[in-house]
Amino acid sequence: MSFARARTPDYPTRAIFSHCGTDRDPCPGAVEFPDFSRREFDLDDAFVSSIVSPGRGNPVLFIHGNSSCKEIWTHQLALLAAHGRPFVALDLPGHGQSGNARSPRHVYSFPGYAGVIGNLLTHLDWHCVDVVGWSLGGHIGLELLGTDTRVRSLLIVGTPPVRPSPHAVTEGFHASNVMQLAGKRAFSVREAQTYARQMLGGDQFVTPRLLEKVIRTDGDARHFMVENALSGVGMDARLVAETTHKPLCVVHGEDEPFVRLSYLRSIRYRTLWNGSISLIRSAGHAPHWQRPKAFNAILSSFLDLESSKSAHSTNNSFALAPDLYANP
């Protein structure tokens, strides 16, 4: 993997273009969720449902966001399957087809979720993984990056690496009414629709299945996750981003409604992949879902998928193809 040590806190952004409705991006309303192999794990803290696929090369772990589910990674799982890379995408406890946490106050936190995932990796007997995390999943990924030696690299999207504290809310996030829903226990149907719309980028990106998963989410998962974060439970993720020696890729949607780009640029990353924050045009909080072609171009380069498709890559050199960033 290639990365650059920070010299100034003002990081450049590298723009990627993509548009739904063209031959480059499928519209989410037409997406069919592939019938990947599902495995269920009865772990210490919860019953966990996951999609697991074998393959060659380093396994990839996908972690979804708050009140979402593993199917949000459909476009990325199809990409990895096509390249023969092994992967797992789980429903976090309290989400999707997984059971609710047996100890909700403990499990519904960044370190609590990280512990569940660590247990899952042990069950899979995976000793070295690349991690991809969206929103809450990115916070969990940063927790894993700072605590679990099995993590080889991390890509975060829609996630500001912040210190768990009330100040972090104003420092890393834009204030909005929807942000208040992130920690609310009970959702009305209208609130679930509002939350899904903002998380996914508009009504056209909200499928019935994804809305169903927002409604299904354990209200305690939202409540305790926010309560624990505001109480300082978890790693100082900014410190992790500034000190880790492992490659860290930061992806940001141009129309992101929650995360402050100025905050992302203020961090003195030690190993920021490609030396820049990857900005995806015409995308909000979920560019992997809204603009999968553009997002997958970044993911493919970060994971060196073209190399791993033909043979099991045994080195950590990740090259970036310049034409991936051309305006189509």
Overview of the structural elements:
By secondary structure, this protein is an alpha/beta fold. It has a single domain, classed as Alpha/Beta hydrolase fold, catalytic domain (Rossmann fold), CATH 3.40.50. It has 14 helices and eleven strands. The strands form two sheets. The protein has a nine-stranded mixed beta sheet, with helices on both faces. A two-stranded antiparallel sheet has the order 1-10. The longest helix has 15 residues, at 110-124. The protein is globular.
Our estimate of the beta-strand percent is 15-25%
Tell me, briefly, the overall form: globular
* Strands, count: 11
Sheet with the most strands: spatial strand order: 2-11-9-8-7-5-6-4-3
**Gyration radius over CA:** 18 Å
Brief rundown of the structure:
This protein is of the alpha/beta class and 328 residues long.
Top keywords for this entry?
two-stranded antiparallel sheet, Rossmann fold, 328 residues, alpha/beta, nine-stranded mixed sheet, disordered N terminus
Topology:
Blueprint (H helix, E strand, L loop, with lengths): L2 E2 L8 E4 L21 E5 L4 E7 L6 E4 L10 H10 L3 E4 L13 H4 L2 H15 L4 E6 L1 H12 L3 E7 L8 H7 L4 H5 L7 H12 L7 H9 L2 H12 L6 H7 L4 E6 L7 H6 L5 E2 L3 E4 L6 H4 L1 H12 L1 H6 L18
Parallel strand pairs: 2-11, 5-6, 5-7, 7-8, 8-9, 9-11
Antiparallel strand pairs: 1-10, 3-4, 4-6
Helix pairs in contact: 3-4, 7-8
